Amino acid sequence: MFRVGFGFDVHQLVEGRELWLGGVLIPHHRGALGHSDADVLLHAVCDALLGAAGLGDIGRHFPDTDDRWKGADSKLLLKEVVRLLGEKGWQVGNVDCTLILEKPRIMPHVPAMRSTIAPILGVAEDAVNIKATTNEKMGFVGREEGVAAHAVALIQKD
Ligand code: MG
Fold first, then answer.
1. Cα of 156 from ligand 1 centre, angstroms
2. What is the structure's pLDDT at 119?
3. 76 alpha carbon to ligand 1 midpoint, in Å?
4. In whole angstroms, what separates CA 84 from the centre of its chain?
């Protein structure tokens, strides 16, 4: 049996925060604002996986009113999502993601993101695809006020 899910997330970019994307710390003069480490890519992946399994969304499982998740490493959130799916008998098939941000360049960091995410999902690195695009200087992403991510996931069980 197969299911697919979709995830979307957006975070504001501000001075004085670290920029975590795909579980990797990216050197940049601005970082994403949020309750956790604000890793927009991992949040989109979490939502895609939860969506595929019919388990709601990241806000339901990790509410920003809960101090347990304050400053949390989003890799731990993703691990918990994979565990929740496992409880229902689901295994991850693959994920495909697109990051949308104006700066910095993401491609040099993609191999590290894939090798970070794949073992958490229990899949091969080629089952974690990460693409990046700018927003052609338009809108809040184009003005470098924020970063967005889309993700789709396939999950399977026997
Ligand atoms: Mg988020």
1. 25
2. 98
3. 14
4. 17
**pTM for this model (two decimals):** 0.97
Q: For 106-128, what is the mean pLDDT? A: 98
Gap between the Cα atoms of 43 and 104, Å rounded: 19
CB 24 within 8 A of CB 112: yes
pLDDT digits (tens, 9 = 90+) for 29-86: 999 999 999 999 999 999 999 999 999 999 999 988 888 888 899 999 999 999 999 9
**136 C-alpha to ligand 1 centroid (Å):** 23
Mean pLDDT of 110-122: 98
Tell me the residue ranges of DSSP E strands in 52-90. Answer: none
Sketch out the chain's domains with CATH numbers: 2-156 (3.30.1330.50)
Cα distance between residue 120 and residue 133, in whole Å: 25
Q: Answer for the pair 140, 146: CB distance below 8 angstroms, yes or no.
A: yes
Question: How does DSSP assign 7-38, residue by residue?
Answer: EEEEEEEEETS-EEETTEEEP-SEEE-SSS--
